[in-house]
Write a structure and sequence with these properties.
Helix 11 links the parallel strand 8 and strand 9. Helix 10 (221-234) crosses helix 11. The protein has 339 residues and is α/β, with parallel strands linked by helices. The chain contains 13 helices and twelve strands. Helices cover 43% and strands 16% of the residues. The relative contact order is 0.12. The strands form two sheets. It has a six-stranded parallel sheet, with helices on both faces. It has a six-stranded mixed sheet with strand order 7-6-8-9-10-12, with helices on both faces. The chain has helices at 2-8, 12-19, 26-39, 45-52, 68-81, 97-105, 124-131, 160-173, 189-204, 221-234, 246-258, 276-280, 292-307; strands at residues 57-62, 87-92, 114-117, 137-140, 153-158, 179-183, 214-216, 240-243, 268-272, 286-289, 320-323, 326-328.
C-alpha cells in the first residue's frame, strides 16, 4: 500500500479504502486503481481473510462438474455471487464421502467464506460435520427432517419423488404397461427418492412391480446404455423406460437406436432433470424439470444472506426450501403430432 500510495500521490488510508471497496473520491479511485495496475498489484485472498475475516471466495462442491444439472447451478450461483464481489471455486467430489467431509472441514482454514454442497449421500458423518461447520453452508439436496444441524446450515431440495411419479404416470397414460426403470445407486438420496416415485406411480396405476424390469447402475450415459441392453435381453416386451436422470435416458436411447427400435413407437423414454441433453437429443426427451437453475439461485441467495449477517448478531434460524417438479413432455414419449 505504501508503494501504491507513493505512485498515486495519495495517503495510505486512501489506498486502503479503495482496495477494500469502502469508497473514495472518483479521482482518488482512478489514481489508486491506475497505480495498482501499473505495479501489478493482486489482492491476497488468504492475507485478507486472516486480517478481515473474509476471503471473498465461495466454494461450490458437487458430484460431477460434467453433469449439465450442475452446470445450470453454477451459472445461477455465479450470477448472484459475482455482483456481490465473490469468486466461485468449483470442486468435483465424485460423490466420495471423504472428499465431501474434507471440503466441509476446510472451511475452518478461512480460505473460503462459505460452502454450497450437493451431496448425493447424507451420512451421519455429514450431519456431524454440518453441525460443526465453521462457516455458512447451504446444502442443495434433502436433509433428514428430524435431524438437528448447525445454525449456519440452510438447504434447498427438489421433490424428486413427486417428479418421478409424474413421469411414470404420464407413461401409463400413454398406454404403456411394461415400464422399465433404470436408476442410479440405490444408496443415494436421488436414487432412493426416484425409486420410491416409480413404485408409488405403478401401485396407484394398478400395475404390479416387476423386479426384472429394474436396473441399478451409475448416473452416466454409458451406464444407461449398458443397463437397457441387459433389460431388453431379459424382458424384450418392454414398452417404456423411465430413467433416473437425463444422462441415463440418453444412454437408453442410444441402445434403442442401435437395436432398430423406434422411440416412442416401440419404446417410450422419459428422464429427469430436464437438462440440455433432454432438449438436444433425438427425439427430444420427455423429462422432469427439477429446477436445477432455480435451486442454484435460491442456494446462492441463502448464502449471500448468511454472509451479510453481522458476525456478533444472533443467527437467523436455519431455512429450508423446496422446488416443485414440472413434467416436460416431448417426442420421446408421445409422437410429435400429438404433443
Amino acid at each position: 500500500m505504501e508503494t501504491i500510495a507513493a505512485r498515486a500521490g495519495v495517503s495510505i488510508a486512501s489506498v486502503s479504502r479503495v482496495l477494500n471497496g469502502h469508497g473514495a473520491r472518483p479521482d482518488t479511485v482512478t489514481r489508486v486503481e491506475r497505480a495498482a495496475a501499473e505495479l501489478g498489484y493482486v489482492a491476497n485472498a488468504v492475507a485478507r481473510s486472516l486480517k478481515g475475516g473474509r476471503s471473498m471466495q465461495l466454494t461450490f462442491a458437487m458430484q460431477d462438474i460434467g453433469n449439465p444439472a450442475y452446470v445450470s447451478m453454477v451459472r445461477e450461483i455465479q450470477a448472484v455471487m459475482k455482483p456481490a464481489g465473490y469468486r466461485l471455486l468449483l470442486h468435483s467430489t465424485d460423490a466420495v464421502v471423504e472428499d465431501e467431509l474434507a471440503v466441509l472441514h476446510s472451511l475452518a482454514d478461512r480460505t473460503s467464506d462459505g460452502l454450497i454442497l450437493c451431496p448425493i449421500r447424507v451420512t451421519p458423518r455429514h450431519l456431524e460435520a454440518l453441525a460443526r461447520a465453521a462457516r455458512p453452508v447451504v446444502v442443495i439436496g434433502s436433509l433428514p427432517d428430524d435431524t438437528p444441524h448447525g445454525p449456519l446450515v440452510d438447504s434447498v431440495r427438489a421433490d424428486s419423488v413427486t417428479g418421478a411419479e409424474a413421469a411414470v404416470r404420464h407413461l401409463v397414460e400413454t398406454g404403456r404397461r411394461r415400464i422399465a426403470f433404470i436408476n442410479g445407486p440405490a444408496d443415494t438420496v436421488p436414487g432412493h427418492h426416484r425409486a420410491l416415485g416409480y413404485r408409488t406411480a405403478l401401485e396407484s396405476s394398478g400395475i404390479e412391480l416387476d423386479p426384472a424390469l429394474t436396473a441399478t447402475t451409475d448416473f452416466t450415459v454409458e451406464a444407461g446404455c449398458a443397463a437397457l441392453h441387459g433389460l431388453l435381453g431379459a424382458r424384450p416386451d418392454i414398452d417404456a423406460v423411465f430413467c433416473a436422470n437425463d444422462q441415463l435416458a440418453l444412454g437408453a436411447s442410444q441402445t434403442l437406436h442401435a437395436r432398430g427400435l423406434a422411440i416412442p413407437g416401440d419404446v417410450a423414454v422419459a428422464g429427469m432433470d430436464d437438462t440440455l441433453l433432454a432438449r438436444a437429443g433425438w427425439p427430444p426427451l420427455t423429462s422432469v424439470d427439477l429446477g436445477s437453475a432455480e435451486r442454484g439461485r435460491i442456494a446462492a441467495r441463502m448464502m449471500l444472506d448468511r454472509l451479510r449477517e453481522p458476525v456478533d448478531a444472533p443467527r437467523a434460524p436455519a431455512r429450508r426450501a423446496t422446488v416443485l417438479p414440472r413434467l416436460i413432455v416431448r417426442a420421446s414419449s408421445i409422437p410429435a403430432p400429438f404433443i
